[in-house]
Amino acid sequence: MYGGIVSTNTGIRNGWDASAAPTQSKQTQTLAEVLKSAQAPSFVEFLSLDCEGCELDVLSTFPFGDYNSSELGMHDASRGAEANAGDVGSHSEPPRRTYAFGAIVVEHNHETHRRRQIRSLLEQKGYLRAKAGICAK
What we know:
This protein is of the alpha+beta class. About 25% of the residues lie in helices and about 10% in strands. The protein is built from 4 helices and 2 strands. The chain starts with about 30 loop residues before the first helix and ends in a 13-residue tail after the last helix.
């Protein structure tokens, strides 16, 4: 049995045809919604992302914060609250909460195109590639 998101399946699983498999629809939340509901701080030390082929979709819509390398590791939940406090008298929407990570590990199923897109996106957000490797099974 395989699991995953049909729209992001690339057929690399030994010819498995995702369109022929039975499907179920599920309501999901964005990563930002999950972090907000868990009251996570604006700076999170480590993120491991493996969501069955939709990692690029998750990352491309994620509200990354603008932290520079000298700030990393020096944040706590109180900074997030200060940085995201809106004007009390304003009728506009409150500012969108942003997040930053000390380190990110992303599954990409060794697909060159997807791996390059993920790396490019993270580099645009100010992250550096530290090491790439293959996990032993």
